[in-house]
Amino acid sequence: MAIDLAPPPPPPPPLAGELEVAGAAVGGKKEEGEGEEGGVCGGEAVVVAAADAEVEGHPYDFHVSGPRNLPPPNWREIIRSSWKDPNYKRMVMACFIQAVYLLELDRQDEKGEEDGLAPKWWKPFKYKVTQTLVDERDGSIYGAILEWDRSSALSDLILIRPSGAPRAVLALRGTLLQKPTIKRDLQDDLRFLVWESLKGSVRYIGALEALKTAVERFGSANVSVAGHSLGAGFALQVCKELAKQGVFVECHLFNPPSVSLAMGVRSMSEKASYLWKKVKASLPLTEEALPDSTKEEGSAKKKLRADKKWVPHLYVNSSDYICCHYNAPNCSTTTTTTTTDGASDEQRQQRKASEIAGDVVAKLFVTSKGPQKFLEAHGLEQWWSDGMELQLAVYDSKLIYRQLKSLYTATAPSPPAK
After folding, report:
1. Domain that holds residue 71
2. Residues 320 and 378: beta-carbon distance below 8 Å
3. Does residue 353 sit within a domain?
4. Is residue 221 helix, strand or coil?
5. What element of type H or E holds 108?
6. How many domains does the chain have?
7. Distance, CA of 363 to CA of 311 (rounded, Å)
8. Residue 2: inside a domain, yes or no?
9. Within 10 A of 91 (CB to CB), how many other CB atoms are there?
10. How many CB atoms within 10 Å of residue 175?
11. Taking 50 as the threshold, does the pLDDT of residue 37 lie above it?
12. What is the C-alpha to C-alpha distance for residues 329 and 398, in angstroms, rounded to an integer?
């Protein structure tokens, strides 16, 4: 279940009795002499506030807590696009999700584009919000469509869209523990916990419709989807729905939820089945004697390798117990390489990926030196931090295979929409 712990808006200050809770929500404060930490709306999106005491502004301002060392937008983007760097793309996708968190907080504070915090998180990348996804039950914003802003790009002499930059991005936020939206957010958290599915949610329907519309307008190759925590759960499932129809959309999943009661029951069943197989291990089985479930699983794996596949990008932190189960390897071959910000690392990633392309089911990025405390490990800020060091594992982990198996087998019925 993806529960995102978000702090309250800065003003007004918390009452004395609320101080402890507010401190926990933002990840606490460091000892005297160190920098302060602030919580990002996004719950787990814990943002490091001004690392420098000289930086002034709201803790959620892009120039305060956003990424550093951004390449300045100019005509050189036409020749050498920053979007070809997977680390840059990861950073931008995380910033777009942060913008959705802030869109909801701006709405609660009755702020618009002129005085809101959210626009500062998409304008530096020459994008604009063309549609917000609103939950009709409580009026909260849970997602947005961002499109390439040609007029803004022309102001910096960027005449055409850089290679690798999507025409449109669907960004989906996670849970906000704020009174206006907490009820509906937690309902979907519980829905995933019980069913391991979000198809019954009205937000799933809204996100799927928005994604289909974007694909019809721009083509699947020009559309990307990004989600964090609960939003990553929605992103995974709407992209899977299109993949079943042969429409493959680039998908970036940050701290996707990996814990559910349904998974626990299935895990116990698998353990019992494993023990039973050990008892029967001495008995030789012919192909005809194999159980139907074993034949179906083998057939599904063959299909995974034979067919053209949809390969999502997952970003997890091993210290985050909500998403760490994605890192459990399957019995198949696994290839891992260390990546840092740099062109040579990008080339090594691509070379390693191409070597085992026939077995790729997903690209799993695991932080090797990321935050260790849960609130920070489940946070969004880590994914746009400078010097991020990841382990790129290109393989079909046990949980990833389970999540994507429905693309090649019959799907189970989903709970009714409410």
Report:
1. 16-266+312-405
2. yes
3. yes
4. helix
5. helix 86-108
6. 1
7. 7
8. no
9. 22
10. 26
11. no
12. 6
Q: Are 82 and 69 in contact (CB under 8 A)?
A: no
Write the DSSP string, 222-251: GEEEEEETHHHHHHHHHHHHHHTTT---EE
Query: In this prediction, what percent of the chain has a pLDDT beyond 90?
Result: 36
Which tens digit of pLDDT belongs to each residue from 241-268?
999 999 999 999 999 987 654 444 444 4
Question: Hey, which of 155-164, 184-193, 216-225 has the most confident mean pLDDT?
Answer: 216-225
d(CA 350, CA 362): 14
User: Cα–Cα–Cα angle for 132, 48, 321, nearest 5°?
Assistant: 80
CB 138 within 8 A of CB 54: no
CA angle 98, 376, 29 (to 5 degrees): 105
Nearest to 126 by CA among 148, 108, 143: 148
Res. 127: pLDDT tops 70: yes
Residue 398: count of CB within 10 angstroms of its CB:
17
Q: The tokens of 386 are what?
A: 């400078």
Give the tokens for residue 89: 């793309």
Non-local CB neighbours of 360 within 8 Å, separated by 6+ positions: 309, 311, 353, 394, 395, 396
The answer, yes or no, to whether residue 98 has pLDDT greater than 70, is yes
Whether 112 maps to a domain, the answer reads yes
Nearest alpha-carbon partner for 181 in 142, 220, 150, 208 = 142
pTM for the structure as a whole: 0.72
Residue 184: both structure tokens together: 């509906």
Q: 27-31, 132-136, 397-401: lowest mean pLDDT where?
A: 27-31
Task: Tell me phi and psi for residue 129, to 5 degrees.
Answer: -85, 125
Tokens 């803004």 correspond to what residue? 152
* Predicted local confidence at residue 302, as pLDDT: 52
> 3-class DSSP state for residue 364?
strand
Strand 168-172 versus strand 223-228 pairing type: parallel
Residue 323 domain-assigned (yes or no)? yes
CB distance 392 to 337 below 8 Å? yes
